[in-house]
From TrEMBL:
Keywords: Glycosyltransferase, Transferase. This is Glycosyltransferase 2-like domain-containing protein. The lineage of its organism: Bacteria, Candidatus Portnoyibacteriota. Belongs to the glycosyltransferase 2 family. GO terms for molecular function: glycosyltransferase activity. Gene3D superfamilies: Spore Coat Polysaccharide Biosynthesis Protein SpsA, Chain A. SUPFAM superfamilies: Nucleotide-diphospho-sugar transferases (SSF53448). The keyword Zinc does not apply. Residues 21-196 form the Glycosyltransferase 2-like domain. Pfam families: Glycos_transf_2. Coiled coil: none annotated.
């Protein structure tokens, strides 16, 4: 396929997974193909296990754009999950930078231009976090709002992860560039060099995002790994996108607020989130930092386990999943720690 884009600028590989995407995919693709930065390729994959109208919509859109940019359309034949689906797309890409693009994202026209410009000037940055705002559904349409979706991942001392300023008004906030713990998984732009260093190869398979997680927390796990490897992550406000978030409306920290947010998500999400949180900690914790933060951890973990056992016992297979995957997580931990460059003080500053 002929690439009409100029080749003097670094190539960006955009990865999209289609999964129940019929409501969103047109807007997402339109915003990608309207970018002022033209040197990108698209790897788009049908990740459904049942027929999905979004696949037809995407194919029809791409047929109209045929020849404009390199596009690879594949099908997994089943739902491999967020991590495995994107991993396969990343492997197929050729770009210096990798955009993981949720199907429910709309990009500002200069999103890629601003992201690439920043990364070209920051060789120690693993990637860019956008000023990601909320898409709100109204009368069957999605409208751009000034409500913050996420300004990057925040890791608390109790190991709870939140999106910075999530659910708050963006008015007069978030206009200053800053270094952050890590990139939210909805629309991160990664440096391929960092992804290659962070990948874990085990039993003949290499992973960027942890495929044992399936979905949920894999972005936090990768962010933690980047930090341990000495890479830096940045929030860049000029890089703007909008997200129609499906869960996690706000970054409430109190117990009542946390429970209210948890009640909004599905049992499937609760199960994977509970399991993956503990597996992620097993992989990435520094022992001294863990013991320094033990009071905060106990204040979270004891109520969390009690709540889970009393109110979410129907999801108890998550507990079995933790123990089943522990040996494999320990093997992955040994690989991570064998490559680790950051010590106690470099990591401690990122736990708020």
């Amino acid at each position: 396929m002929k690439n009409l884009a100029p080749t003097s600028k670094p190539l960006v590989s955009a990865s999209i997974l289609l999964w129940h995407s019929e409501k969103f995919i047109s807007g997402c693709l339109e915003s990608l193909f309207a970018q002022t930065y033209k040197n990108f390729e698209l790897i788009i994959t049908d990740n459904n296990d049942v027929p999905d109208d979004g696949v037809r919509i995407a194919q029809e859109f791409l047929e109209k754009q045929k020849g404009q940019y390199p596009v690879k359309f594949t099908s997994n034949g089943r739902n491999l999950g967020f991590a495995a689906g994107h991993n396969r797309n990343i492997e197929q890409g050729r770009g210096k930078y990798v955009l993981l693009l949720n199907q429910d994202i709309v990009l500002a026209p200069n999103f890629l231009e601003k992201a690439v410009a920043f990364l070209e000037g920051q060789p120690n940055a693993c990637g860019v976090q956008s000023r990601c705002l909320r898409l709100k559904e109204k009368d069957g349409r999605f409208e751009k709002s000034q409500i913050i979706d996420s300004l990057g991942l925040v890791m608390l001392k109790n190991r709870r992860i939140i999106g910075r300023r999530q659910g708050q008004s963006a008015e007069n906030y978030g206009l200053k560039q800053r270094e952050i713990f890590g990139l939210d998984g909805a629309v991160p732009v990664f440096r391929r060099e960092a992804l290659e260093e962070a990948k874990i190869c085990l039993d003949g398979r290499c992973e960027y995002l942890d495929e044992d997680f399936l979905s949920y927390k894999e972005d936090v796990d990768l962010a933690w790994r980047f930090r341990l490897l000495g890479w830096r992550a940045f929030y860049v406000p000029e890089v703007v996108a909008w997200h129609a978030r499906g869960s996690g409306d706000s970054a409430k920290k109190g117990p009542v607020g946390i429970v209210k947010e948890r009640l909004k998500i599905s049992d499937f999400a609760k199960k994977l989130s509970f399991r993956n949180q503990r597996l992620m900690q097993l992989k990435n914790e520094l022992p001294l930092l863990f013991f320094c933060h033990l009071p905060w951890l106990l204040l979270k973990e004891v109520p969390a386990w009690l709540y889970f056992l009393v109110f979410e016992w129907r999801n108890r297979e998550a507990i079995g999943g933790i123990f089943k995957l522990m040996p494999r997580m320990w093997r992955k931990r040994k690989i991570i720690m064998g490559k680790r460059k950051a010590g106690f003080w470099q990591m401690a500053r990122w736990f708020e």
